[in-house]
Amino acid sequence: MSRKIKTIAVVGRPNVGKSTLVNRILGARKSIVDDMPGVTRDRIYFDAEWLGREFMLIDTGGIITNDEDEFVNNIFLQARVAIDEADTILFIVDGKSGLSPYDKEIANLLRSREEEVVLVVNKIDSMSEIGNISEFYALGLGEPHAVSALHGSGNVGDLLDEITRDIKAKDEKEDDTTVKIAIVGKPNAGKSSILNKLLNKERAIVSDVSGTTRDSINSKIKVDGQEYILIDTAGIRKRSKVDYGVEAFAVDRAIRSIREADVALLVIDATEGLTDQDKKIAQTIEEAGCGIILAINKWDLLTNVQTHHFEKDLEKEAPFLNYAAKLFISAKSGQRLEKIFPEAQMVANERAKRISTGLLNKVVNEAMDLNPPSSVKGKRLKVYYTTQVKSKPPTFVLFINNLDLIRESYKKYLIKKLREAFGFFGSPIRISFRQKGEKQ
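RE: above sequence
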């Protein structure tokens, strides 16, 4: 029997930053954010996750009208519907504008409920404003949590720890060893020809007319005792050139196939070189957390000089793809196609790899000793603890002293050292940072 997903509702009067906090929790700008009160008029539901703990997040909003009484009634209506559905309520108040009569009215409603209520004082953007939270104790809802949803400062991570503490982390599916390979790329790069060669039959339509494959086609195959699912997808063109309707849906399905796959085989036409569109598709694969193999097709049509330049250009134009596995193939002659399956298996294994906490901390500490981070205004980044929170793709959380001390260049350096130590060949790596107080 499937377990019930915990539901967490975000409520409060308009313009206190509810949608901004929702976006911060989700890690993406998914909810509508505007300075105009009442922008979020309906309840909006999101699937959310924190350190492997899954929950449903409900964003709600108040509606402003010319009639104050009606305004209050509408606020209560929105709050009541969300509260009735929720296991935990995040009650958001504005730390800059202070305690409002509407806050008191909502608090009166919440105190009568059995559900857990967590009071969150938003817009506390600096330590100098921390005193602003004291007046909210008067709401009688316990200790307020000070956060800045807009800037990400404050204890958002600690807040998430508290509201998800009773959620069991999901178990990753280890029993299914089937490797899903999405064959992706621009139209006419040779995707369907590769699929047909691998399956040794005319499974997909092959044509010189780009856009022949309109839908994702799944084929199961067993090689050396290992099962694979090959997903042939529609060619992904520049969005400005995609016609609305059938092609747009086909491209959406191709992108969805990438998100669901273990490994994406990005087919690149060697005669055209690495194009901007190839780079965009590669970025889509990376953002999806999918493993990647660059399959440079039509390699047999290049001269020795051209092959040399191609490899150099690839390294120069797309350094972010240095971690990707690379195969130089020919769908027409079958050159090196037999390497696709073992390469995909290897990338899938790297993407699923887990590192022991002790070894992980040793490598991170050594990396920091070797190249200490630069100080910022006299302060230096400290990493107290590092842990791997999930795999597929490998995801790490570093507990640090101050989020303001993180620089993108140093984040890239740490990823590089993780790759040097543990490989993760062909797989993207995710690292994030959580702030803890200075150790005494």
